[in-house]
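Next comes the chain:
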Amino acid sequence: MSLDDYKVVLYRNQPDGWVAEVPSVPGCYALMNTRAEARSELERVFAMIEAEYLHMGYGVIRGLQIFPGSVQPPWRSVND
């Protein structure tokens, strides 16, 4: 899987800057000065989150399908 397999949303962060995010992956967003910088940083953030998911044994990121019924990251239990 790569970032290209996900819906990426880019929008202006008022008063300046840009936000890039993957809505289906909690915490996968970047805030930068330009649209290009936001997209580039989002790729790094996505890679870090994907590495964490793999390290925790969750396989590739598939949005919220990894932990159905919850918006908590997979490394947190509901009881935390």
